[in-house]
Amino acid sequence: MRRGSKYVLGIPMVLIGFFVTLGGAAAMAVFGLDGTFRLESGVHSSGHALVFDALSLRGLRPSGAWKADVRIEVLLSEGGPAFVGVAPREDAAAYLADAVVDRVVQLRPVGGLQTERAEGPTIRREPGPPGEQTFWVASVEGSPATLAWTATSGDWSIVVMRMDGRQRIHGDGVLSLTIDAIGPLSVALLVAGTLLLGGGSALVISGAKTPRTNIGRRSPGAPPSGGTPARPDAV
Prior knowledge:
Elements: H1 3-31, E1 36-45, E2 49-57, E3 68-76, E4 82-88, H2 89-95, E5 101-108, E6 112-117, E7 138-142, E8 145-150, E9 154-162, E10 169-179, H3 182-209
Helix pairs in contact: 1-3
């Protein structure tokens, strides 16, 4: 293989291998070999509810390697029972329309939940007890309250409240998301990326060691193109 061909093949292989390896390493760091993302954080709100409603899920199946299993555990510091529920976003918004609500705007592996106060009406009213509502697709109450939910397609809100619906939520929470297929996928990406990096690097190194091909140049003493060899004059 010529020097130029080795560069043409090797350099793209190195670049692709680098990004594939980077993706596999990132997936491994976030989800681990078992495909589980886990976040421990304080759960705090001076309002009636803490809401995470950035869940717009499409194409999820309730079974198979790509199903998404969500587990949330909340323990209030004052020891009373907590409520954790999953509801269609519109239903949760209507239920909490007149309540004081803090929304989760970011999930940070370091630093936990980042929240902000949601805008609402000037006159706030205490919502009814969450356990009496019928729109939850999954809910649990207890101390701690531990919710297990297999996510399905839709627009969802996750709501954390006190069982009596009153203000002030303070405690600790654990959120985990498990997608079984991500563990093997991250390993496959790491292996594929490593092979591409290794193969591409070998081609580039080999190309650097391959002598240049001097096309169109004649070696010393060679006759001109199309001519006859020069002969020394006869004595």
